[in-house]
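Onboarding guide, step 5: your first structure request.
Type a short instruction followed by the sequence, for example:

Predict the 3D structure of this protein.
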Amino acid sequence: MITVSRVHKKFGKIHAVRGITFELVPGQVAGLLGPNGAGKTSTIRMITGYSTPDSGQVSVGGYDALLQPLAARRCVGYLPEAAPLYPEMRTVDYLSYRARLYGMDRAMRASAVRRAIDRCWLGDVAVRRVGKLSKGYKQRVCLAAALLHEPPVLVLDEPTNGLDPSQIRETRELIKELSRERTMLVSSHILAEIERLCNRVIIMARGEVRADADPAALVARARERASYVVQCRRSRPGDDERMYKVWQNIPHIADIQPDTPDRAATVQGWSIWMLAAKPGAPDLREQIAQAALDAGVLIRELRHEVPTLEKIFLKLVEEAPEQAQAVPA
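The system replies with structure tokens like these:
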């Protein structure tokens, strides 16, 4: 229901989006991740019809967003991060007004507003003025407005922003329910929410797609290459050079990273090493411990680093463009 094909977008000298391609189908909840300046907002604005690509194609619901903009926009329910609201209007009146903008007649408006209020738990504030509502309730009013016309595509920017824990849980359940028959694109800075909500994650950096896969698959792939944190005694000059040679002699070690200046400053008398194993290597903790013992070095900590979506995200966005390789879905 959403197709983005070889899309580029520039703003003056800034190349915000660089030839990105992906396709989302009904039943998918895709999380769009990336640091500030990654091109997420530009991508969302092109999908929702607020902006047009310089080249490439964007289609929504089978309609070309450039050639059939009105038809494409009718397929989308959009919840922006800072949605515009009219604070002087009552919740029910605001939703009715939004329904009129979708071209609904009076009977359709009444039914759509009731359904949206029930879905987004707004019954208690239906007759209150929007300007008097809490941030969480305002967020739910915006979500209700996006659902009024039963769009086949939902684009949600920070959908749980400002909600309390119970509201976040309820919103997750609502998103899962809505995704059964819809295509959903969710953008959030809260990686834990993306892991819970999404069955696909698209990571962008510097205007490019760096990874596109199931979150669990990304983590499983990262686990194929284990890493270990080792903290050992630094008791005399030359210990670091000696330990580096010890780590080099361990089979299956692919990369050795010594202390960074900030670590060395906070852990006086101890050296901290990051040891990366080759893909498919066995658990190396026993070999690491034995190598240190044979070298007469005291280990205070030996920890197997477990990859998380956050660590994978940080690694991907920090890679130089020539080093990054998109992970296929």
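Each response can be followed by summary notes, for example: The first helix runs from residue 40 to 47.
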